[in-house]
Design goal:
There is one protein chain. The chain is α/β, with parallel strands linked by helices and 535 residues long. The chain folds into three domains: 2-42 and 63-216, Phosphoenolpyruvate Carboxykinase, domain 1; 219-264 and 344-528, Alpha-Beta Complex (Phosphoenolpyruvate Carboxykinase, domain 3); 274-332, Phosphoenolpyruvate Carboxykinase, domain 2 (Beta Complex). The protein contains 13 helices and 32 strands. The strands form seven sheets. Strands 1, 2, 5, 6, 7, 8, 9, 10, 11 and 12 form a ten-stranded mixed β-sheet that branches. Strands 13, 14, 15, 16, 17, 23, 24, 25 and 28 form a nine-stranded mixed β-sheet that branches. Strands 3-4-19-22-18 form a five-stranded mixed β-sheet, with helices on one face. A hairpin with a 4-residue loop joins β11 and β12 (189-193).
């Protein structure tokens, strides 16, 4: 066994994870050397200005039906079992793991020892073992790099073994398909196979953090975060397409992170050392910082098309998938904090893209309403985005990240309630969706208006204005907002047919009520009373 390393590495060998008799071990290679290895192995090509362009085959996104959690005594009673956390038998895991490490024999492997979590009191030492050089670069970009001194004493508390070319046999292994992502909390191990989609590496560790941190009174969150000139921190929760990344990337504010954070007694901290942004039809005008990151050395472009001769990137080309991605170190964003930390938040914003066109564009939430909407996690899909979706379709993803919540949602909701009460946080609901009618009739809220509402909320300009109570959703809606036409603040008034609005609002309110039945027995009467009015 030959060990290749460019920096000091942990004294914890790969045999700890059952990996023996491999060929070369590439320990903690820096970015240029990983480029060289990836290109030499034909894993990707370099594009104009330096990004590494890779393909992931037919797996161009997460495989939610292929994610499992081992049902074992130390964690079983805490896991939120269901579609997001499918149970897997310990014996089946051991057998699949044994075959996986056997597959690695005589092969080269790449190792990155790094951290998840920027708060030194709560960071998790992790090890990412991959068979591809570009996945090792992804781990180097997305997790927090350890210093040379830290590497010498680095002892991984959780390890990911990622082997895209190893395929499960469903009838033998008990998986759903040839692809699998399986977390074993007892063995502190994640095994991934049958998929090259790099997001599985980052999201598996996010799931691990979501399990571990609540035991330490730390709230893990699927949100972006930034802070202003006065150090005032804001959190942005929202599902895909709601503007979470776009609205948090504000040149006037400092970015803490774009996706995964913890809220400890010390404040807010990023779990990651990089960003993993969707880049399909990315605009240099609307998202200049992310756009520039797609033109830099060190960035991985996943399933992005490039011109074969000049190697220019084609960000508008969705030939392979709509889910084209860029993975880059957060240092590629000029106004990002290198510390990846901020103070306790002053404001929390829940983003929704309401395609029914009935929710107010900005509203203030009480603590009970905050808990209700956090547990609901609402947005809407629009016609044309998926086959068979012909009208707006409500989507409820609890805690704005149900697939990654390993404990029961009420655990996270109670932690959120405790922290917003303790720190007197203002909570807001911002609708980045439709106004003047539903999708197909009305129009999408202008981004300039949404940014103005966000800025007004964060700057305190909505503290002293008049409010009215929305008759269906019960939230407090401001009657005025700087740089926003007053007539769009009350959604019913933007519709040409008030009765049609009432009918659509009742319809959506009813969907909220039906969805929330799963949480009713775990929340207080006051939270139940925060439900929209469907009558």
């Amino acid at each position: 066994m030959r060990v290749t390393n460019s920096r000091p590495y942990s004294k914890v060998g790969l045999d700890t994870h059952g990996i023996t008799n491999v060929n070369h071990i590439y320990w903690n290679l820096p970015t240029p050397m990983l480029y060289e290895e990836a290109i030499r192995r034909h894993e990707g090509v370099m594009s104009h200005l330096g990004p590494l362009v890779v393909r992931t085959g037919h797996h161009t996104g997460r495989s939610p039906n292929d994610k499992f959690t081992v049902r074992e005594p130390s964690s079983a009673e805490h896991i939120w079992w269901g579609s997001g956390n499918r149970p897997f038998e310990p014996n089946s895991f051991d057998a699949l793991h044994k075959r996986l490490v056997s597959y690695l024999q005589l092969k080269d492997v790449f190792v990155q020892d790094c951290w998840a979590g920027a708060d030194p009191d709560y960071r998790l030492p992790v090890r990412i073992i991959t068979e591809n050089a570009w996945h090792s670069l992804f781990a180097r970009n997305m997790f927090i790099q350890a210093t040379s001194a830290e590497l010498e004493s680095h002892v991984p508390e959780f390890t990911v073994i990622n082997c895209p070319r190893f395929h499960a046999i469903p009838e033998v292994d008990g998986t759903n398909s040839e692809a699998f992502v399986i977390i074993n909390f007892a063995k502190k191990l994640v095994i991934i196979g049958g998929t090259s989609y790099a997001g599985e590496i980052k999201k598996s560790i996010f799931s691990v953090m979501n399990y571990l941190l609540p035991f330490k009174d730390v709230l893990p969150m699927h949100c972006s975060a930034n802070y202003g000139l006065e150090g005032d921190t804001a959190l942005f929760f929202g599902l895909s397409g709601t503007g979470k990344t776009t609205l948090s990337a504000d040149a006037a504010r400092t970015l803490i992170g774009d996706d995964e954070h913890g809220w400890s007694n010390n404040g807010i901290f990023n779990f990651e050392g990089g960003c993993y942004a969707k880049v399909i039809r990315l605009s240099a005008e609307a998202e200049p910082e992310i756009y520039q990151a797609t033109r830099r050395f060190g960035t991985i472009l996943e399933n992005v098309m490039v011109d074969a001769e000049a190697r220019h990137v084609e960000l508008n080309d969705d030939s392979l998938t709509e889910n084209t991605r860029a993975a880059y170190p957060i240092s590629h964003i000029p106004n990002a904090t290198r510390e990846k930390r901020g103070d306790h938040p002053n404001n929390i914003i829940f983003l929704t893209a309401d395609a029914f066109g009935v929710m107010p564009p900005v509203a203030k939430l009480t603590p009970d309403q905050t808990m209700y909407h956090f547990l609901s996690g609402y947005t809407a899909k629009v016609a044309g985005t998926e086959r068979g979706v012909n009208e707006p379709q409500a989507t409820f993803s609890t805690c704005f990240g149900a697939p990654f919540m390993t404990q029961r949602p009420i655990i996270y909701a109670n932690l959120l309630c405790k922290k917003i009460t303790e720190h007197k946080v203002n909570c807001w609901l911002i609708n980045t969706g439709w106004t003047g009618g539903p999708y197909g009739v009305g129009q999408r809220m202008k981004i300039t208006h949404t940014r103005a509402m966000v800025n007004a909320a964060l700057n305190g300009n909505l503290n002293d204005v008049d409010y009215v109570t929305d008759p269906f959703f019960g939230v407090e809606v401001p009657t005025s907002c700087p740089d926003v036409p007053a007539e769009i603040l009350t959604p019913r008034g933007t519709w040409s047919d008030g009765k049609a609005y009432d009918e659509q609002a009742r319809k959506l309110a009813g969907m909220f009520v039906v969805n929330f039945k799963q949480f009713e027995d775990e929340v207080s009467d006051d939270v139940r009373m925060a439900a929209p009015n469907a009558t």
